[in-house]
Design a protein that fits this description.
With 202 residues, the chain is mainly alpha-helical. 77% of the residues lie in helices and 4% in strands. It contains 9 helices and 2 strands; from the N terminus they run αββαααααααα. Strands 1-2 form a two-stranded antiparallel sheet. A hairpin with a 2-residue loop joins strand 1 and strand 2. Helix 3 runs antiparallel to helix 4, helix 6 packs antiparallel against helix 7 and helix 6 runs antiparallel to helix 8. The longest helix is centred in the C-terminal third of the chain and has 28 residues. The protein is globular, with a radius of gyration of 19 Å.
Length: 202
């Protein structure tokens, strides 16, 4: 089934909306404790409990509008539901904080496995959007694999050694900025190995 095109700003809002809602909500409730059905929950856990259905809702809307979800989106939703749910159920923030580590280890591990086989799994999911020569894909895949492992280490350092507020800021802005800067620095590689659509058709 071909992916339907939607307004890119709408898609961005649906993908980033739950993260921004979590950040704003945590900022307002971080020092509060809520008693629900006789159990006490921190503001962080309350926002985690709200984040899960919100992410499911926005992901469902993306799927309904485009007819497609990437494997990365599906894996992210599954890990959020599992580890976010464990955090709320066990009242232990560590599960949700460790979730980005597992996501980046998973993605890095999958790409790394492909590299060991001499293949770029990244190319399989991005080739249509970013046509490049095979050599370019292998270089980009090696870089992204190392980058994902680096993000996993960074997340572990932050959540284990800094406050919850520092981790939320890092998760909301630090990881997003790191991803943006990484792809910005790959411009020369994409220019060198990029394939023009006219060339590809020929």
């Amino acid at each position: 089934m071909a992916e339907k095109q939607i307004n890119p700003w709408l898609k961005l809002a649906l993908e980033l909306g739950p993260v921004l809602v979590f950040f704003i909500g945590f900022g307002r409730m971080k020092d509060q404790t809520f008693t629900i059905f006789g159990n006490d929950y921190s503001g962080f856990l309350v926002m985690t409990a709200l984040f899960i259905p919100l992410l499911l809702l926005t992901t469902g809307i993306v799927w309904a509008l485009t007819g497609k979800l990437s494997k990365m989106q599906v894996a992210t939703v599954v890990l959020v539901v599992v580890f976010g749910g464990l955090s709320v159920w066990l009242k232990d923030e560590r599960f949700f904080k460790a979730k980005p580590t597992l996501i980046y280890l998973l993605f890095g591990g999958i790409l790394g496995f492909g590299l060991l086989r001499g293949k770029s799994y990244l190319r399989l999911v991005m080739d249509e959007a970013l046509p490049m020569q095979a050599e370019g894909w292998m270089i980009l895949t090696r870089r992204i694999t190392a980058f994902f492992f680096g993000l996993a280490v960074a997340n572990e350092v932050i959540w284990r050694n800094f406050s919850t507020e520092a981790w939320v800021n890092f998760k909301t802005f630090g990881l997003t900025a790191a991803l943006f800067l990484f792809f910005m620095t790959q411009g020369r590689l994409m220019q060198k190995y990029g394939i023009e659509k006219d060339d590809e058709a020929a």
